[in-house]
Every structure is written in C-alpha cells, then in structure tokens.
Amino acid sequence: MRGSSGVLVLVYAALLAACVPTSGIKPVDALSAVSAGHTVLVGRVELHPALKPGEQKLGDSYKEFADEALLIVDEELRPVPQFRRGDLGERIDAPFGRLFFVELPAEPTYILKGWVVMDAQVEVVGPNEPPPDPAAPLAGAFKLDLKPGDRAVYIGTIQYYRDEFFSTQKVVVKDDYAAANEEFQRKFGKGVALRKALAVPVSASE
Amino acid sequence: MIRQARFASLLFAGALLVGCASDTIGPERDLNDPTNSLVFVYVDMADAPTGIDDATLKPQGEEGYWHLVVEDGLMYQRYLPNGSYQFSRLAGSSFLHGEVLYDFPAYGQNASAIRIQKPGIYFLGSFKYKEVKTGFFEQAKFDIERVDSPTELELLNRLLKEDWVKGSQWDARIRARIAELGKKK
User: Fold this and answer.
1) ipTM
2) Under an 8 A CB cutoff, do B2 and A136 touch?
3) Using the 8-state DSSP alphabet, how is residue A96 labeled?
4) With the CA atoms of B28, B29, B32 and B33 taken in that order, what torsion angle do they form, in degrees rounded to the nearest 10?
5) How confident is the model at residue A205 (pLDDT cuts 50, 70, 90)?
6) Among A130, A133, A167, whose Cβ lies nearest the Cβ of B11?
7) Residue B180 buriedness (CB in 10 A; 0-12 / 13-18 / 19+)
8) Which residue, of A3, A29, A88, B85, is most buried by count of CB atoms within 10 Å of its CB?
9) CB-based contacts of A106: which residues, under 8 Å, 6+ apart?
10) Contact B107 A118 (CB under 8 A)
11) Helix B152-160 vs helix B169-184: angle between axes, to the nearest 10 degrees?
12) pLDDT of residue B137
C-alpha cells in the first residue's frame, strides 16, 4: 500500500507543476531592458473581500501564487472557460494591492480572465478521487488600448468584488494614476511618460 | 452581475468514495433544533448515465460537506445551520457505467446556490440533468437546467409522508409551508 500511495503523490505533484507554466510576460526592472516595439504595462489588481489567511492552500512549491491574480492575456478576445495550461503561458502575475510593471508588445490586447490559485499542494488523493479545483476564476474581460510607440501605459486598478461562493459580483476599474505615476517615476525615473489608458471592460462569453 | 458557467466535470470512477468521506459534517444536531433549516431539491437524471445515490452540499467558508438524503430524485438535508451552500457533488452507479461522480466547480456559484440567513424551509428548485457536448479527448461535462416540475408543493407533500417527519418539529413546519403555498395559488 505504501508503494501505491507514493505513486499517487508523484502523479499529483507532476499534475500541478504542469498546470502553471512560466509566463511569457515578464516583469520589468529597467526601461533599458524593454525590447523595441514593446511597452511597460502598469496596473494594479484588488480583490474584495481580500483572501483570508489560510484560504489559499499552497504547498511550499507553490508559494509564489500566494495573494496574487493570474491575468490571462491574448491579442484576440475569446472565452477562457477553464484553468488550462495553454492559457497560462501568456499571463500577468499581479500581486493583490501592489502595482505590477510588465512588458507587452505595444499593440491592442486583452485581459481575458483572471485566476487565483487556491489549492496547489502535494497530497495523497484516492485512486478514483479527482484532484481539487486548483483555481478560482475572476470573471471579466478588458481591452487594453496599447499603441505602437507607447513606452509605458497605465491601465488602472482593477477591483474584483466576490461573494462567498467566489463568484465575481462586480468589477470596477479605478483611476489611481497619480499614485501609480509617482511610483513609476521612483522606479524608472522621469525620462519616460506614463500614458493613461484605463482598461475597458468588454464582454466575452464564458 | 457576472455569473459563472455552470459546467462541471463528470468523472467515471472505479469506486464510489463519497459514501465514506471522512469530512462529512453532521448530523450532530438534534432533529428538533429550532435553528435547523430543511433544504430540498429535485434532480431528474433520466438523461444521465446513472441515477443518484449520494449528493453533497458544500458550506462556503467551512471545511467539510453535508450529505443529503436521496430518494428517487428528491434530495434533502434537515439539520442545516445558517450559512451559504451549493451542490458539490452528485454520485451514482449503473451496470453499464459503473460508479460515476458528477462534480461541480469548487469556486463560483452554481444553479443550486443558497444563502440561509434564518432557519426555515428552502427549496433549491427542480433540475434536469443535461449533457454538454465536448471534444473526443475532453473530459465529459454536464449542466443542470431548472425545470418547472415537480413543484415545491408536490415535493413537500412527499416529504410529509416521511417517517422522520412524524412527531418532529418538521411536521408542523412543513404543513405551515404547504398552507402558505396554498394561499399563493
């Protein structure tokens, strides 16, 4: 019996690792590192009410997903019905309540959906028991008005309001430009202007 | 308001585990505890691979599950404290398909969601199982669609005939609800 449990542990660990690949969208630490034709996208995500301590069940290997949203990005608007590896390759890792600075091609694009990793840990599950749902959805798609020539674009604070079932009840895009620009200038200097182009909610069928 | 898709995964399993789940909540409460709520629901599984032998409600923000009593499509739980609940899983078996688990997504509301803020009798609705088409290599999916029949009144009359109702607080409470529904007709 001990042998078969071990196999199950390995299978589940491998499954989770496969679920969340490294994102092709990287954080920016210096403007000089941004490729030609790309821009720095600046924004913030909030979850209301915030996650409670212990609400996310993350094993040691998955702590990087604590208190953050994974925002799925694509140049085409399309539904994202499930938490799938294929969608996660192009995502913004957005820590709740803090500005993110990531590099994207300077062309119109979409945030298709968000996810919060809720259950990612190595544990023994029964041979016929499906693994728990790994992530909770943050519903709502947004158009990002990025243009060729943009060096840095601010898209606002995206506030997701959830109920006790973790259904998204409301999404608000708040303009916190002044504070964001201050932090942008502190981080990158005053040489590049941060253009404001708030994320625009659009409908995408689930 | 943005609502989530109600699709859920359907898993053909080799053994039924839900019946012996160790994280089952209740019934540790007294049947006549006035803070109990009676929650009931009907699911027509005529188009499903199996009937239902077991069903669980997930209390939101709490560990564990509440199992429902299942009787020919009618499912109920008579010990529920206040809270928010929704279907977590249905389970059944058939000779052809073996044991089958019908899992609902853990996050986001499904059609059975209910918020109980004061003790009472709550009808989650009547539903019909509906298969959702998927690709050949994709996991099977299903949905539950709200239907008009059987009605709350019909199901309450079924519940009233249950042995556990007689002599309990539920006898008067179910009769009161039936009278209330009668006045609305």
Assistant:
1) 0.80
2) no
3) B
4) 170
5) low
6) A130
7) exposed
8) B85
9) A37, A38, A39, A146, A147, A148, A149, A150
10) yes
11) 150
12) 66
Tokens of A12: 């589940």
Q: How many residues are listed for chain A in this entry?
A: 206
Interface of B with A in 39-98 (CB under 8 A): 60-61, 84, 86
- Decide if B179 touches A, using CB distance below 8 A: no
- CB distance A165–B109 less than 8 Å? yes
H-helix or E-strand containing B11?
A: strand B8-13
Those of residues 113-172 in B touching chain A at CB distance below 8 A are 113, 115
- Residue in A120, A117, A122 with CA at minimum distance from that of residue A13: A122
DSSP assigned state of B73: T
**DSSP letter assigned to residue B161:** T
Residues B55, B99: Cα–Cα separation, whole Å = 13
**Interatomic CA distance for residues B66 and A196, integer angstroms:** 49
> Judging by DSSP bridges, how do beta strands B114-116 and A68-74 pair with one another?
unpaired
Token pair for B2: 């943005």
- Which residues in chain B touch residue A130, judged by CB atoms under 8 angstroms apart? 9, 11, 101, 103
Do residue A81 and residue B4 have CB atoms under 8 angstroms apart? Answer: no
Torsion of CA A174, A178, A183, A184, to 10 degrees: 90
- Closest partner residue to A126 among B3, B7, B17, by Cβ? B17
Is A165 within 8 Å of chain B by CB? yes
Instruction: State whether B2 and A163 contact (CB < 8 Å).
Output: no
Condensed to tens digits (0 to 9), the pLDDT of residues A95-129 reads 999 999 999 999 999 999 999 999 987 766 666 66
Do A134 and A19 touch, CB atoms closer than 8 A?
yes
The C-alpha atoms of residue B185 and residue B121 are separated, in whole angstroms, by 18
Q: CB of A125 within 8 Å of any CB in chain B?
A: no
B15–chain A Cβ distance below 8 A for any pair: yes
Q: What is the pLDDT along chain B (185 residues), one digit of tens a residue?
A: 222 334 455 555 433 333 333 456 766 789 999 999 999 999 999 999 999 999 999 999 888 899 999 999 999 999 999 999 999 999 999 998 888 899 999 999 999 999 999 999 999 999 999 988 777 666 778 888 999 999 999 999 999 999 999 999 999 999 999 999 988 76
| Paired residues of A153 in beta bridges | A41, A195
